[in-house]
Amino acid sequence: MDEIRNTRSHRFALLLGLELKGNFARLQVSQTRIADKLGHSRTSYSKWLNAKPSMPIEALLNTCELIGLDPREIVNAAYERLIEEMGPYVDKSQRESLIDRAVVDPESFGVAALRDENKSRESQGGEGR
Predict the structure, then answer these.
(1) Residues 6+ apart with CB under 8 A from 59
(2) pLDDT (tens digit per residue) in 42-100
(3) Distance between CA atoms of 68 and 123, rounded to whole angstroms?
(4) Domain range annotation of the chain
């Protein structure tokens, strides 16, 4: 797995834990109580919520059903946060293609710096630096 996918998947696992923790607070339920009710050790459950390692899908489902949450809502909320933070996933070949296109035709990407009126003055050592 490339580094970007590895980073994204780990961040997603962290965001899932954060979504669950937020719902625990909202519902006034402790993660300790959830771990006990599900028969998991408190330490393991805490580690899963902090993505060290990632929570098994079965534990996510059981957690959600125990406290009356739709697991799809937790996953969707975590994924939306991932997209907000890191943008949509672009695989390596797509990134390389985008870079090649940007080099050939940078103006097609709408980069604000290309339209900056101070750009030429800055390159000449003028004001605006």
Answers:
(1) 38, 40, 45, 48
(2) 999 999 999 999 999 999 999 999 999 999 999 999 999 999 999 998 876 666 666 67
(3) 60
(4) 3-86, 92-123
Phi-psi region of 87 (alpha: psi -120 to 50; beta: other; left: phi over 0): left
Burial pattern 8-26, b for ≥16 Cβ within 10 A else e, equals beebbbbbbbbbbeebbee
Q: Note the pTM of the prediction, 2 decimals.
A: 0.70
Q: Which CATH superfamily includes the segment(s) 3-86?
A: lambda repressor-like DNA-binding domains (1.10.260.40)
Tokens of residue 68, six digits:
């009356």
Sign of CA dihedral 27, 28, 31, 36: negative
pLDDT in tens, 3-19: 888 999 999 999 999 99
Question: Would you call 18 helix, strand, or coil by DSSP?
Answer: helix
Distance (Å, rounded) from C-alpha 79 to C-alpha 18?
Answer: 12
For residue 127, the model assigns a pLDDT of 58
Tokens encoding 23? 């719902």
